[in-house]
Design brief:
The chain has 14 helices and 10 strands. It is 38% helix and 9% strand. The chain has helices at 4-7, 10-13, 50-60, 63-68, 112-116, 121-137, 167-181, 212-219, 221-230, 251-261, 279-282, 294-300, 310-322, 333-350; strands at 88-89, 142-143, 147-150, 162-164, 188-194, 207-208, 234-237, 241-242, 245-246, 267-269. A hairpin with a 2-residue loop joins β8 (241-242) and β9.
Length: 353
């Protein structure tokens, strides 16, 4: 039975940390009614336990509302007093400036390839801690770094963003960066691009054929070390296919390996436009393979689809309602609630700073 332990119980905990999305975030991540915002719903009542309030909130979310929690920036749910939110920031060697025009700037740290050349995890952890402080200053929850892919060819246009051609060094430096950033309470990192993203040419539809031994010993080892030694808040899957399946739709990669085998307990997101049909990308030619399926992301436990679109939401809702296979995948309400729970848990975690 597919992921029975995690997903058959998802109904009762699908929004266990959902209250991190509300307009009145406190250290607990739960909303509290004030004199100006008296509400009758149980989840506003602090006399109830966290679990009781969370179960009450998830029971009030419609199927469509659950699906809308899985994109880049989630819409508000006014009837429940829940505000919209977005909590990530780009920038591999420094926090991307979020206050342009206001005289605010970020430190430009050395590029990843230079940091790995130091062979000094303690130094990299200090850099991560400093970067995490700037993440906090800019009111960001998750920093989309580090990139953990292996240098496979000097022709890869993003090698400067990756640490090394050596899996052990890559993993140790990545873990140090994660641990440094996450010394700042409520701030997290994103290890990417999971996995075998080693070229820029046709990166959306490349189908990488790799043996399990090569995967485990070379291309996944850095991710494994980073997860086991630093537990990053999130993983970003890659654009490419791996042995015929989009990594964003790959249950064995995301659930069986990252979560069940390595113990990852954060949120998984796609790379940008992985499951969106963008004419600027696909209009130049007819790809051999289709784009990543929204339903496949839910099936695999790829919680967030970046940046997300209405079609993603509609496809998910339709598949759950019909119980029929859509775009090659059949998903259940438990699958959807599992993903929503993961997202909302991290939202609350990032609001505990």
């Amino acid at each position: 039975m597919k992921n029975a332990k995690h997903r058959l119980t998802a109904f009762g905990c699908a929004a266990v940390m959902a209250m991190g999305a509300v307009a009145l975030p406190l250290s607990s991540g739960l909303p509290v009614a004030t004199a100006a915002t008296q509400r009758s719903e149980l989840f506003w009542d602090t006399s109830y336990s966290f679990e009781e309030r969370a179960a009450d909130l998830v029971s009030r979310l419609t199927l469509a509302e659950k699906a809308t929690q899985l994109g880049n920036s989630t819409p508000a749910i006014p009837r429940l007093g829940i505000a919209k939110y977005g909590f990530w920031n780009e920038g591999l060697h420094g926090v991307a400036n979020t206050k342009k025009g206001e005289g605010e700037f970020a430190t430009s740290f050395p590029y990843s390839i230079a940091m790995a050349a130091s062979w000094d995890p303690e130094l990299i952890e200090e850099i991560g801690k400093a970067g995490g402080e700037e993440v906090k200053e800019n009111n960001i929850g998750i920093w989309l770094t580090p990139a953990v892919n292996i240098h496979r060819s000097p022709l890869c246009g993003r090698n400067f963003e990756y640490y090394s051609e050596d899996p052990l060094l890559t993993g140790k430096i990545s873990a140090a960066m994660n641990n440094g950033v996450q010394k700042n309470p409520g701030k997290g990192t994103t290890i990417k691009h999971f996995a075998v993203n080693n070229q820029e040419e046709n990166r959306y539809f490349t189908n990488a054929h790799v043996s399990e031994r090569a995967l485990r010993e070379i291309y996944l080892k850095g991710f494994e070390i980073a997860i086991r030694e630093s537990q990053p808040m999130s993983i970003m899957t890659s654009y490419n296919l791996l042995n015929g399946t989009h990594t964003a739709n790959n249950y064995d990669l995301i659930q069986k390996m990252a979560r069940d085998e390595w113990g990852f307990d954060g949120v998984v997101m796609t790379d940008w436009y992985t499951s969106v049909d963008v004419p600027a990308i696909t209009g130049k030619y007819t790809p051999k393979y289709p784009i990543s399926a929204s339903t496949g992301c839910i099936y695999a436990g790829n919680d967030m689809q970046m940046p997300g679109c209405q079609k993603n939401v509609d496809d998910i809702v339709e598949a759950v309602q019909s119980g029929e296979e859509k775009d090659g995948y059949k998903i259940t309400l438990a699958d959807l609630q599992f993903c929503a729970k993961n997202v909302l848990h991290i939202v609350a975690k990032t609001m505990k700073a």
